[in-house]
């Protein structure tokens, strides 16, 4: 059972798959596969720690600039991950959410995601996956939708964010030693706590997530107050 001061909503920038593979003289695709294994470990750890919502940065709108072979590897990994885990998600009451314009993916992937979203809709915990996502684009989209309805206010924009139905973001983690947000959840991170770890994503698991939650629990959150 989680401590009362653990976060409800954790987001992770999963970084370091390529470096993990390079250090082991393995193909980059093997790093992404190991990263997929880490996703499963962390999803399971969230259940142990009582974390209500986990949001993962899986494929950014900028990732289309990568080599075609690597993009193909990532798409195939996505197909396999859905097939391998959907039954377990349903059994464990895990709701899948997609943030971003996932309709830009190949039709069979879109169909698999739509099916997974429908089949897991009744879940009580949430795994939100950012696919073809960019925070700046999200904010522009939300502001435009707000403008169509009337005055553009912070609350009007928030209503149209992809994350509108998720708990407020409490903790954002980035692995692999990089210290930047890379266009991820910029609006939602306004008052989130942040932890940057040198651990490469394929090596991240329950122990690392628990340590981050314990660090979160020591912080005083004042939301701009004193």
TrEMBL record:
<feature type="binding site">
    <location>
        <position position="193"/>
    </location>
    <ligand>
        <name>Mg(2+)</name>
    </ligand>
</feature>
<feature type="binding site">
    <location>
        <begin position="180"/>
        <end position="182"/>
    </location>
    <ligand>
        <name>substrate</name>
    </ligand>
</feature>
<feature type="binding site">
    <location>
        <begin position="16"/>
        <end position="19"/>
    </location>
    <ligand>
        <name>substrate</name>
    </ligand>
</feature>
<keyword id="KW-0479">Metal-binding</keyword>
<feature type="binding site">
    <location>
        <position position="28"/>
    </location>
    <ligand>
        <name>substrate</name>
    </ligand>
</feature>
<feature type="binding site">
    <location>
        <position position="174"/>
    </location>
    <ligand>
        <name>substrate</name>
    </ligand>
</feature>
<feature type="binding site">
    <location>
        <position position="15"/>
    </location>
    <ligand>
        <name>Mg(2+)</name>
    </ligand>
</feature>
<feature type="binding site">
    <location>
        <position position="64"/>
    </location>
    <ligand>
        <name>substrate</name>
    </ligand>
</feature>
<feature type="binding site">
    <location>
        <begin position="60"/>
        <end position="62"/>
    </location>
    <ligand>
        <name>substrate</name>
    </ligand>
</feature>
<dbReference type="InterPro" id="IPR036424">
    <property type="entry name" value="UPP_synth-like_sf"/>
</dbReference>
<feature type="binding site">
    <location>
        <position position="20"/>
    </location>
    <ligand>
        <name>substrate</name>
    </ligand>
</feature>
<keyword id="KW-0808">Transferase</keyword>
<feature type="binding site">
    <location>
        <position position="32"/>
    </location>
    <ligand>
        <name>substrate</name>
    </ligand>
</feature>
<feature type="active site" description="Proton acceptor">
    <location>
        <position position="63"/>
    </location>
</feature>
<dbReference type="InterPro" id="IPR001441">
    <property type="entry name" value="UPP_synth-like"/>
</dbReference>
<keyword id="KW-0460">Magnesium</keyword>
<comment type="subunit">
    <text>Homodimer.</text>
</comment>
<comment type="function">
    <text>Catalyzes the condensation of isopentenyl diphosphate (IPP) with allylic pyrophosphates generating different type of terpenoids.</text>
</comment>
<dbReference type="GO" id="GO:0016740">
    <property type="term" value="F:transferase activity"/>
</dbReference>
<dbReference type="Pfam" id="PF01255">
    <property type="entry name" value="Prenyltransf"/>
</dbReference>
<dbReference type="InterPro" id="IPR018520">
    <property type="entry name" value="UPP_synth-like_CS"/>
</dbReference>
<protein>
    <recommendedName>
        <fullName>Isoprenyl transferase</fullName>
        <ecNumber>2.5.1.-</ecNumber>
    </recommendedName>
</protein>
<feature type="binding site">
    <location>
        <position position="66"/>
    </location>
    <ligand>
        <name>substrate</name>
    </ligand>
</feature>
<comment type="similarity">
    <text>Belongs to the UPP synthase family.</text>
</comment>
<feature type="active site">
    <location>
        <position position="15"/>
    </location>
</feature>
